[in-house]
Amino acid sequence: MGTTVFTIANQKGGVGKTTTAVNLAAALAEKKIHTLLIDLDPQANATSAIGIEKQAGRSLYGPLHGEGSAIEMITPTAYEHLALIPSEEDLAAAEIELAQMENYLMKLRAVLEPLRASNGYRAIIIDCPPALGMLSMNSLAAADQLLITLQCEYMALEGLGQILRNVDRLKSAHVNDGLNLGGIVMTMFDGRTNLAKQVVDEVRQHLPEKIFNTVIPRTVRLSEAPSFGKPIFAYDPHGPGALAYRNLAKEVIERFGLQSSA
Questions:
Q1: Do the Cβ atoms of 86 and 39 come closer than 8 Å?
Q2: Which residues contact 91 (CB under 8 A, 6 or more apart)?
Q3: For residue 189, what are the β-bridge partners?
Q4: Which neighbouring-strand residues pair with 4?
Q5: What is the pTM of this model?
Q6: How many whole angstroms separate alpha carbon 137 and alpha carbon 215?
Q7: Is residue 215 domain-resident?
Q8: Which residue range is the domain that position 225 belongs to?
Q9: Could you give the CA distance from residue 196 to residue 188 in angstroms, rounded to a whole number?
Q10: Are 77 and 50 in contact (CB under 8 A)?
Q11: What distance in Å separates the CA atoms of residue 34 and residue 82, rounded to the nearest whole number?
Q12: Per-residue pLDDT tens for 157-198?
């Protein structure tokens, strides 16, 4: 069975990365797949989007410095099969401090090892900061699968190229030989514009096996849900956003052979 670690990354902000991390995690949990969401972004948007308050000393900041374990930081959520390791502002300091440590790219991998070994979760989903700094690079070094969120807009492919070059660098340096590009999630799709359709078609042409069939629409409900501290399934369970993330979860389950814990 084992645990699959997914990291959701993009060096750009505002591309639906946290929305995807939170709602994909919630959709997998809805399918009775034990899922752990790790908020590695100091802004803690994933933490608040799932309805958890930021608390000092509850993030991976301590474990990354050798104090405490990741398992101790796990916080239950209001949703069955879904747990969280929250973020806090201290993680911003980790960006600088990690660079001064030995094996600085492998810190997160080591911190997550006991979690993997415990087999308590089928899926671990890491939400990264919107920059390719130390925390994001650590999450790439710790992951099995990279999921990239791309906004359906002009220049999206440029951002994609940048991330893929970083993945190649990590692999050629043997930091994480096992890292795969698990898939590309097209987000903020507006069916009324030709541009959105063109961007999706372009990515399909470049990476046909990698792009998910499910395209996440741009909806008011999806953008409102985090301010209510709820995943889309609790806020607007029958809307197009919830439908899209349920379909994405189905694709992820099939593509990566995730089985429910029931």
A1: yes
A2: 40, 41, 42, 59, 60, 61, 135
A3: 217
A4: 123
A5: 0.96
A6: 26
A7: yes
A8: 4-256
A9: 9
A10: yes
A11: 6
A12: 777 888 888 889 888 889 999 999 999 999 999 988 888 899
Amino acid at 88: E
Q: Residue 27 gets which letter from DSSP?
A: H
Distances in Å between the Cα of 226 and the Cα atoms of 65, 230, 231 are: 30, 6, 7
Given pLDDT bands bounded at 50, 70 and 90, which one contains residue 259?
confident
Which residue do the tokens 């929305």 mark? 19
Dihedral in degrees, nearest 10, Cα atoms 251, 255, 257, 259: -10
- H or E segment to which residue 194 belongs: helix 194-206
Alpha carbon distance, N-terminus to C-terminus of the chain: 13
Evaluate whether 45 touches 18 at the Cβ level (below 8 Å): yes
| Residue type (1 letter), 63 | P
Question: What's the one-letter identity of residue 79?
Answer: Y
What is the CATH classification number for the domain harbouring 131?
3.40.50.300
In a domain? residue 261 = no
CA R_g for the chain? 17
| Residues paired with 60 in a beta bridge | none
Burial of residue 225 (CB within 10 Å: 0-12, 13-18, 19+) is: buried
Query: 45 lies in a domain?
Result: yes
Residues in the chain: 262
Number of domains in the chain: 1
**Among candidate residues 257, 77, 251, 262, the one with its CA nearest the CA of residue 147:** 251
Give residue 75's identity as a one-letter amino acid code: T
CA 214 to chain CA centroid, Å, is 17
pLDDT average, residue stretch 35-47 = 96
Give the position of tokens 């590695």: 40
Structure tokens at 119: 């087999």
44: tokens are 């803690």
Has residue 262 been placed in a domain? no
Angstrom distance (rounded) from CA 156 to CA 172: 25
